């Protein structure tokens, strides 16, 4: 006997999906005529709560602007750091060991993490933290020249956090 392949035949995984769908949509009502509909991905407004006050909307817009400008600011900051590789190579440190020479310089990984916090200051309403990683590049050789011109390898990584302030609509170091 073959299993039925009609609308009423669903397996255990299908029942689970159906149950989860029912739980997720419980209590929702379809939009009524004249009610603005939400775009996909937007959260549902809380029931029985007044609309946000204009002051909070202005604050939210300012925070959104600060976040967007901090994203751009930190991207540009990281691009500047990454472009310093040649400059850092010229400033490499060389030391002699029992086995020869070690040459090292500092480079930067392009990864970054950011956070923004609201402050109580009217002059500086936000502070932003940029976290990135610097790397130690290392080469070894029997002579100083071999170490300086050898293949540099990523030897160490350390985390750096910098704090910036948002004053008069722009991020300041």
Brief overview, please?
Helix content is 32%, strand content 34%. The chain has 173 residues and is α+β, with helices and mostly antiparallel strands.
Taken as a percent bin, the fraction of beta residues is: 25-35%
Strand order across the largest sheet: 1-2-3-4-5
Taken from the alpha-carbon principal axes, the silhouette is rod-shaped
Major β-sheet profile: 5 strands, antiparallel
Order of helices and strands: HHHEEEHEE
- What is the total tally of β strands? 5
- Class from helix and strand fractions: alpha+beta
Unreliable sequence segments: 1-46
The number of helical runs is 4
The pLDDT mean sits at 77
Helix content: 25-40%
- CA gyration radius, whole angstroms: 28 Å
Instruction: For the record, give the distance between the C-alpha atoms at the N and C termini, rounded to a whole number.
Output: 75 Å
